[in-house]
Write a structure and sequence with these properties.
By secondary structure, the protein is of the alpha+beta class. The chain contains three helices and seven strands. The strands form two sheets. Strands 2-5-6-7 form a four-stranded antiparallel beta sheet, with no helix packed on it. It has a three-stranded antiparallel beta sheet with strand order 1-3-4. Strand 3 and strand 4 (40-44) form a beta hairpin. The longest helix has 7 residues, at 4-10. The model is unreliable at 1-7 and 101-106 (pLDDT under 50).
Length: 111
């Protein structure tokens, strides 16, 4: 939940229901359901693939999704299986942990 406006309107995160390890995801398929005090938000997958890791810390502290979305609040790691439906990757990344040009497509994607 990185958009500040969405964060302010949605309230505190109460629960994170993430699909289990091994789940096959279609592009745009449901990855997780995040329940907040005010609204439920469905997160969809940006690529087809299989979930290989789920963030175990979110069971005890789901608020990390809102408080630290680019750090401790990650949802899952996905092993991509089909890039054909995915949107083209940007030439540069704007997230705070990345700088410079994106050169390769990662084998695993952390969302």
């Amino acid at each position: 939940m990185s958009n500040r406006s969405v964060q302010q309107r949605s309230g505190d995160v109460a629960f994170a229901g993430i699909k289990p390890v091994g789940t096959a995801l279609a592009f745009g398929g449901e990855l997780a359901m995040i329940e907040t005090i005010k609204v439920n938000v469905t997160y969809t997958s940006s690529v087809a693939g299989k979930i290989v890791t789920v963030n175990p810390a979110l069971q005890a502290a789901p608020e990390a999704i809102k408080l630290d979305p680019y750090g401790q609040g990650w949802l899952a790691v996905i092993e991509p299986s089909d890039w054909s439906a995915a949107k083209p990757a940007p030439k540069t990344c704007t997230c705070p942990h990345c700088t410079g040009e994106l050169v390769t497509i990662p084998q695993l994607i952390q969302i």
